[in-house]
Amino acid sequence: MKDFNSWNLLKKEINNKETNIFCNSREIWWCSIGLNIGSEEDGKNELFERPVLIIKVFNRDILRVVPLTSKYKNDKNHIQIKYNDRVGSIIISQIKTISSKRLSRKLCRLDKKQFEDVVLGIKDSLI
Question: What domains, with CATH codes, occur in the chain?
């Protein structure tokens, strides 16, 4: 059973947070994605977090991100990446626009080649 009440309390705290986070495309950050409906990707732990790859920074408040999973899946909705001596998958079917207030801490920056592969995969998935 999902604990939506805890997520709603945390979401109120996140909403009141000052926005002083500066980030860039290609960066991977821990992000409070929250609890979501059905098969939408959820965050984990007490902060409902999951790593996300920043695809586009619209301004200091709004970002487009795609969540990561530690599980490798070989299908059209996942792209394998390597970062921080780990192997993971970008879940391109779960791309979303978020507030930068959801970001908590930077993990690393993805290399240019892998980022280009992710962007191409996202473009292909939109058609």
Answer: 4-125 (2.30.30.110)
Cβ neighbors of 124 (< 8 A, separation 6 or more) are none
Query: CA-CA distance, 127 to 115, in Å (whole number)?
Result: 19
Q: How far is CA 60 from CA 11, 23, 24, 68, 99, in A?
A: 19, 8, 10, 22, 9
Tell me the C-alpha distance between 91 and 68, whole Å: 6
Question: How high is the pLDDT of residue 127?
Answer: 74
Q: How many CA atoms lie within 13 A of 53 on its CB side?
A: 29
At 52-89, the pLDDT tens digits run 999 999 999 999 999 999 887 888 889 999 999 999 99
Strand, helix or coil for residue 43? coil
